[in-house]
Amino acid sequence: MQKDSSHAVLITGSTSGIGLAMAHCFGRAGYQVMLHGLADQDSAQALLAEFARYGSHNGFSDADLSTEEGCAQLVRDTREAVGNPSVLINNAGIQFTAPAHDFPAQKWQQILSINLSAGFFLSRDLLPAMRAANWGRIINIASVHGLVASEHKAAYCAAKHGLIGLTKVLALENADCNITANAICPGWVETPLIQPQIEAISREQQLDLEAARAQLVGAKQPMAKASRPEAIGELALYLCGDFASTITGASLPVDGGWTAQ
To answer: Can 54 be counted among the known catalytic residues?
Structure first.
């Protein structure tokens, strides 16, 4: 059983991909959803209109998560739109790849700021209300790269490993208040972001798109199929339910066996 429909969820990076799929899962379950991400005013209004069909009150913010002040702005926007959220999902993230010896300092700082520090600042600012209510859920969307490494992803791996460490600390510190903190660690996920890589393999090796997809995913995952974004959303929703009340401090791979190797 899920918590009642008065509960609100803040999902960062929820205008597309995994974040948007999670937002729809929570909207369908009756949560008030605070959307966040990159969207102009018209796109944001269209998104809010789309979520209005769930019959709950929702909001949107485009606050910049690369700074502490931007995170504070998102907290203010959220409280104004839906009140204190009982569920925080730190999903927003960026990527940049280069060998460590060539990695630009600006990209390093940007990735750590958005992929790691934002999750800390938002958790820090929203936890007091969760503790006062004696209930809360923090779900950090990490990655298989929070558990294992890949070349050319120094900043991303460092941030995601750090996010898992943060998750464990939050779980320990808030276990006395019915607040859980968990990390979901996706492998390959069916989003538009992977399509250019599939098409590149298809062109270079003269394969059809499905064979190229299987090659891309199968290079890392024994189960050579990507997860659907909705699978991440349903797992996040489960972690907010009564049966998951003692799951805390966990790092849950959804990766086709990638990290089992």
So the answer is: no
DSSP state at residue 114: I
- Are 74 and 65 a contacting pair, CB within 8 Å? yes
167 and 182 Cβ atoms separated by less than 8 Å: yes
How far, in Å, CA of 236 to CA of 234, rounded?
5
Could you give the angle at the alpha carbon of 160 between the alpha carbons of 155 and 166, nearest 5°?
125
Provide the token pair at 164: 């898992």
The predicted-structure confidence for 34-62, as pLDDT tens digits, reads as follows: 999 999 999 999 999 999 999 989 999 99
**Contact at 8 Å (CB) between 23 and 44?**
no
Tell me whether residue 261 is exposed, middle or buried, using C-beta atoms within 10 angstroms of its C-beta: 0 to 12, 13 to 18, 19 or more. Answer: exposed
Which pTM value belongs to this model?
A: 0.95
For 73-110, how does the pLDDT look when each residue is reduced to its tens digit (9 = 90+)?
999 999 999 999 999 999 999 999 999 999 999 999 99
Q: Which of 243, 240, 238, 242 is nearest to 254 (CA)?
A: 238
Q: What is the pLDDT of residues 100-141, one digit of tens each?
A: 999 999 999 999 999 999 999 999 999 999 999 999 999 999
User: How many CB atoms are closer than 10 A to CB 61?
Assistant: 23
- How far is residue 38 from each of residues 41, 44, 46, 134, 233, measured CA to CA in Å? 10, 9, 13, 33, 20
- Torsion from C-alpha of 34, 40, 43, 47, nearest 10 degrees: 0
Instruction: Give the active site residue among 31, 54, 156, 238.
Output: 156
pLDDT digits (tens, 9 = 90+) for 5-38: 469 999 999 999 999 999 999 999 999 999 999 9
Handedness of CA 151, 152, 158, 163 (dihedral sign): negative
